[in-house]
Amino acid sequence: MYHSKKRDISKFLRKESEVNMYSPKISEQYIPVIYRKSKELKIPMTKFVNQIIHKALEDAVDDTNRSVPVGAQVVPPAKACR
């Protein structure tokens, strides 16, 4: 009985890990800034980036929980603006 449950759990975990989740790459130009600022704040880079994303999403969603209007201008990375 135990081995059967263990096999079922292993099968489930394998399926879950096989799901391809999109993980966007952070532009290389931002990494040094994120690194320095996270060290200054004495928090992990991931926590700092999550705080930035959280704030940006709060700013992007209005009071009625609607998303950014279609056609809203998206600001490209600094490198692309030059």
How many strands, what sense, and barrel or not for the largest sheet? none
Q: Radius of gyration from the CA trace?
A: 20 Å
User: Looking at the structure, what is the overall shape?
Assistant: extended
pLDDT average, as an integer?
74
In the predicted model, the low-confidence regions spanning at least 5 consecutive residues are none
| N- to C-terminal distance | 65 Å
Number of strands: 0
Secondary structure class reads mainly alpha
Q: Report the helical percentage.
A: 55-70%
Question: H/E order of the elements?
Answer: HHHH
How many alpha or pi helices? 4
Percent range for β-strand residues: under 5%
Question: What is the element layout, followed by pairings?
Answer:
Elements: H1 2-18, H2 31-41, H3 45-60, H4 78-81
Helix pairs in contact: 2-3
What does this structure look like?
The chain has a domain of 36 residues. The longest helix has 17 residues. With 82 residues, it is mostly helical. Helix content is 59%, strand content 0%. α2 packs across α3. The chain is extended, with a radius of gyration of 20 Å. The mean pLDDT is 74.
Summarize the model shown.
The chain has helices spanning 2-18, 31-41, 45-60, 78-81. It has 82 residues and is mainly α.
Which structural traits does this protein have?
82 residues; mainly alpha; 4 helices
